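quick one if you have a minute, typing this from the bus. theres a chain ive been looking at and ive put its sequence and its fold in token form underneath. please have a look and point out which stretches look like helix strand or loop to you. anything you notice is useful, everything is just below.

***
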Amino acid sequence: MPALERLHHEGYPILAVVSQPPKPAGRGMRVHKTPVHERAETLNLPVLTPQRARDPEFIEQARSLAPDLIVLASYGKILPQSLLEIASLGNWNLHASLLPKYRGASPIQYAILNGETETGVTLMEMVREMDAGDIYLQVVEPILPDDDYGTLEARLAQRAAELLIEGLQRLQAGTLTRTPQNHAAATYAPLITKEDCHIRWDEPAVRCRNRIRAFSPKPGAYAFWRGKMLKIWRAEVALTPVPSPTAWERGVASPRAHAVGEVSEGTPPLAHAVGEVSEGTPPPRPRGGRGGQGG
């Protein structure tokens, strides 16, 4: 979103915005447009919503627009070669990692999960292989100790917008260069699965906390209390010894450990929960009004 807004603000001609098709969502399963789709309409920009990027009709639409440059940011689909051959100046992708680290769909989540202290944004040329194209520009962004996916993603989106404008300015000035990636150093960040969000209490406490941070505010890390799923949105590492959380999750141990965090049963975070969990007592329930999360 910030990249689109910055392009429009700087006066670059935007021939069309391509977004995912509207989909049903929420309890009422009402059809919703993506935030990018809605923002493009408020900017009076034409929007294309193909079911698949390789649909012949969509490729013909793109060809008829005759763009100089195609820019991709968090689109979620790999573009076919026939589409990559249309733009005369190339096809750029804004990727939320310092490539070649964390190629794939979930670079922000994996950077947090793996305890990285910094990440960044890469402006790269798109090729058929996923996130393997030459690098134009990169910018480093620190990962703060209390960052979660939501806070870090928001900052990286702003940095991506800045990097895109810098790339366009260098392109216009004739000073933009490209560097091939070191493919031998590539690491990967695949799509997040439900099991990835399951807190593994046999892992070190720091890793458990990182898992919670990586998947907050969405989709949310979770654990079970006597068969009931609890989503945990925030946690701190305790400095005192605690009983086995795996036994706590099975409901067969007495987990007398201080729990500090935000806990809810499948709902967005409501309030801080601070207390002691003991045998026969459910985890502390949050109090306060229902809060919302942007997506």
About this structure: Helices lie at 2-9, 35-42, 56-65, 81-84, 107-113, 149-173, 205-214, 245-250. Confidence is low (pLDDT under 50) at residues 252-295. The chain has two domains: 2-185, 195-277.
